[in-house]
Structures are given as structure tokens and as C-alpha cells.
Write a structure and sequence with these properties.
The protein has 334 residues and is of the alpha/beta class. It has helices at residues 10-19, 26-39, 49-59, 63-73, 96-109, 123-136, 155-166, 185-198, 215-221, 246-255, 264-281, 295-298, 302-314, 321-333; strands at residues 3-8, 43-48, 79-83, 111-116, 140-146, 173-178, 204-208, 229-232, 259-260.
Amino acid sequence: MAEIQLVDVSLRDGNQSLWGATGLRTDHILQIAPVLNRVGFRALDFMSSTAMGVAVRTHREDPWERIRLTRAAMPDTPLQLIGTGFRFISWERAHPEVMQLVYERLVAAGISRFVLLDPMHDMDAVRRSARMVKRAGGTETILALTYTISAVHDDDFYAGIAAAAAASPYIDRAYIKDPAGLLTPERARTLIPAVRARLGGKPLELHAHCTIGLSPLVYLIAPDLGVSVLQTGCGALADGSSLPDAQRVAANLRALGHTVDVDDRLLSVAARYFSRLAAAEGLPSGRPQPYDEAFTRHQLAGGVLTTLRRQLAELGLEGRFDAVIEEVGRVRAE
């Protein structure tokens, strides 16, 4: 039986997946931060450069201040930023010297854990970014293995990326990132061992969205396959197009004989907070999702769906959502 740690994604990916990245303000976060600090999470998926831009545009808030205040309110739990390496706020590629400065200021503000996500798996770029993060004082770097279904992305493909991570002294661990929630238990039984075999002993985490109801089942077998950290959401910011509910994951894993060392009372407090906040602000709550085969064709990430709906609404094009989804599937096939 395994000892499993949890990373909470409510403040970043949960907010992005279910609330269009706009639901949480700094005051919302600061109210619950002391509780989240004491639950026993390994880390909090807290920020991205996109979320920093949204904080300014939508709420007229200073995202750097948000990081500093949250760090002060929860000094014991690492704050994580996810980024694509050589991009910050803008979608344009940034100069390496700019990115080095960015990482230095992020560490100074309170970010210590960095996920390096390059959807094309450009390992040269990932290694350079990891080196910059370490030079800036970041304590932990995590390579994201972005899961998708195609003729190219077989187990050997991901094992090769894992081997490249194992060879880098600047990459501490890896996680399988399943943004569209497409990973099945059957595929997990071959993919996870293939990745772990080439990671050189570096820890492996799992981040899988609930978009079509598969990830809670994958989470049940992941510990037996050697995954040591599972990423989850809380209350209204779990399930749906977000990630599995932390309370349910902990209970199910314990029933299977695993150890999940979190404070259940404080976890319940956090879950109730987000659910009450959703009710007060008129925001949706995540719900378990039925299986939808269409996702295997368009493969849109959980956070993309709600953001797409919001952006179409801002343009007065809400009625075009289904047409856009159809076109995404067609373009992907082409």
C-alpha cells in the first residue's frame, strides 16, 4: 500500500476550468489561505502567467501582490506556477533575459515550485527553462508530460520524454498532465509503468481532469502503478471540467488501504468555503460528468471549454459554440 500526497488545484486550475479563470479575487483567496496551509497538501497549484493577466484585466488587481500576500498567509505549503517556459503574460515568445528576470521575481514574491509545460514537448526549451528556474532560486521543477491521443503519442513517445527528464539535473520530477481527461484505466496501466521505468527514480505525479468521468477511476489505480502525488480540487472547484474531488479521492484511496495524510476536518472547511462562495457569487459548481466520446475527437482541455464559452459570450457569439467545437475536431483530424 502506498502513501499518497495531494496537490490542490482549486485556486488556479479549478478556477480556470469551472469559473473561466475570473471567479477568484485576492480577497477570496486570502480568506481561505490559512486553512489550505494547514490541510496537509504537498503544494498548491496557484498561478500561471495567464492568471496574472486575468487578475489585471478582469479585477484590476496586482497579481504580484496576490502572490506575496498569499505566501505570507500560508508559509508552510509551496505555491506552484505553471508556465510554458519562454512566454510570460503575452503569447509572444520572450527573450531569455526577460524570462530569467521573471523567474527571479516570482521566486522573490513567493513561488517555489514550477511546472514546465511545453505542449510540443520541446525538451531543449524545457531544460533551459528548468536551469533558469534553479538559477533564480526555485526549489522544485516539474516536467509536464501532456497526454493526448494520436498515432504519435504512444507509450514509447512519453517514455522517451521521461528519459530526457531523468538525464537533466535541473528537473526534479514529472507529472502526467491529462488536460482533456482522456486517460483510461487501461491505458494508464501501460503508460505509467513505461514512464516510471525511464524517469531514473524521479517521482511521478498525475494531473487528470474529470471532463468525461474517467480520471476518478484512473486515480484509484495510479498508486498501485507507482504514482506518489495526485492533483485534486475542493468543493465547488472539483469535478466537472476540473479535477477529482479531494475528499472523495482521499476516502476512496484509504478504503483501498493507502495512506493519505491530510486533515479531513480542514479539508471539509475548504470544500464548504468554495461551495458557499459559488452560491454567493452565482458561479457554477463542478459535478461528476458523463462519458462523452466527442472529447476523443476535439480533445479540448477542461480550462479551455469554459474560457471559450466566456470569450464567445464577450464577442456576442455564444450561439456559435457547437460550430466551433465541430471545427476544432475537423482541424485536428486534418
